[in-house]
Amino acid sequence: MAPDRQHIRLRWNPVFIHLLAWAIVFLFPLLFIERFESMRRVHEFSLIKFYVQPISIAVIFYINYLWLIDKVLFRKKTVQFILYNLLLIVVANVVIYLVHRMIIPDEFLHHRPIPRPPRPGLMQWQDSITLALMVGLSVAIKMTQKWIVSEKERKQLEQERTEAELKNLKNQLNPHFLFNTLNNIYSLIAISPDRAQSAVLELSKMLRYVLYENAQAYVPMEKELEFNHNYIELMRLRLARHVKVEVDMPDGLCRGYQIAPLLFITLIENAFKHGTSATEPSFVKIVMREPSPGVIECRIENSCFPKDESDKSGSGIGLKNLSRQLELLYPGKYTLHAESDTRVYRSSLTIDLN
């Protein structure tokens, strides 16, 4: 029911504005209309005299507003549109002249026979200018309405295109994430079957999040942090003792805020993939904090062990998708930075959730 009421309200708003505007136009002459000194009522011929011009204005306005602009001007028939309006202005001037000088006798207006002077040419020019301005006003209103509708349709189309692109990026990211995680479990099976079983259990929890929560546009920050924590614990299971993992991820970061899912996992995943070695000492340090209310920051440092070219799992799909998702979801409200030297790779992501 609420959408129906909103639709009716939106439909009636322009009608109310039109009624209000014309009420002002038609009531304005009452401030200057002729009145009898002995009677507090408006003379009927005075009403006709004073309202013939507003009526002409209204007729020309709606002929343009409801027909000529859509059927002629918007179809690129500009010359024809101008000729139609010149004809309308001439006809309106003739009608105004006839009403003022022929239909309404001056004897009724002034109660005494007096010669009727011709209508001054200046007044006819003023009427023509007023009518021409009304044509311009109708065109301006119609053009503005057309622009508003076009802008709304453009934004709707842009939103649909963005949603489709985000969905496509997520569809690419999910297999990428699963592929890397299965590789980790595969390597863990050879080292410790018991820990591999625990890893499969953790993976099932994470896949539930990926399949169901990832389908939503935004999720509570608490769930996203929990997912990141579960992934880190899963990675710990396969790491050798010489790999040092430091995690500083306090509970309650950005509590009450919503965030697009799976944004930080790409950086965390890359840290474990490219920052650990099965034979050499290595480290991964992950720090997440809230530098100001509603702003989440993730900083990661890890030792640098680039994969060789034969390892296709490190193809960079995740980082490319992350950058594009951030551009679509948080334009102007995020910073993504990465740098490396021969030993340490540093990455950071800050998002303003306000």
TrEMBL record:
Listed transmembrane segments: 12-31, 51-69, 81-103
Pfam families: His_kinase
Keyword Transmembrane helix appears in the UniProt entry: yes
Entry keyword annotation includes Manganese: no
Lineage of the species this protein comes from: Bacteria, Pseudomonadati, Bacteroidota, Bacteroidia, Bacteroidales
Domain Signal transduction histidine kinase internal region: from-to ranges: 164-240
Molecular function terms, GO-annotated: phosphorelay sensor kinase activity
Name assigned to this protein: Histidine kinase
Recorded GO CC terms: membrane
Species of provenance: Barnesiella viscericola DSM 18177
InterPro entries the UniProt entry points to: Bact_2-comp_sensor_kinase (IPR050640), HATPase_C_sf (IPR036890), Sig_transdc_His_kin_internal (IPR010559)
Annotated keywords: Kinase, Membrane, Transferase, Transmembrane, Transmembrane helix
